[in-house]
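Quick start: what a row looks like.
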Amino acid sequence: MKDFINNIFLIGELILVSPQLLLFYLSSEKEVIVADVKRWVEIFEWKSTSDLSNLLSLTAKKQEFRNLYYYRIAKGNFAARLVMRIIKIFYKECPYLFLDMSSNIGPGLFIQHGFSTIIMADIGENCWINQQVSIGYKDKTGRPKIGDNVRITAGAKVLGNITVGNNVTVGANAVVIKNVPDNCVVVGVPAYIVKKNGLKVKEELV
């Protein structure tokens, strides 16, 4: 009986957010949206259903995903952007998460707890960003370029015209203002390397 009631609520929830499918069908960004959906479902370890059903579940339950979804729609064609203006009146974004439209964000970005998070950078594929993270300009010289499979954890700051390589983890509350090579873990203020290519080290960033 409990499962039956839960299923009824789930179906009702999906029906309520079903207008989000209109955005998807109108959008020219379907491929990257589906990649985002698959990544989020994998991380949450949800039971595998159709991509469209998962898309609706994510837009219903995860406000951070909704921000990312609207970012993808806004990067696409005019028709989807126009309809999105109406959809957003009824299905609000997370007000504490800012994705700058000048950013280029690769597929598979996961945002865990988007509270007080600012993303203004070019970001690679399958990255992970936690709450209270700031990524963006330090001054007028430029903004960060983030590689693939990068994880930026709670409270971290990545600032300025720098490059963060592939497979990097930025520790909680770290402040990164210099280039980070591939396959590293960095921590501290200012950040320094504590693991490189799987080995423990203590190296300054240059």
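That is the whole record. DSSP finds six helices and 15 strands in the chain. The mean pLDDT is 92.
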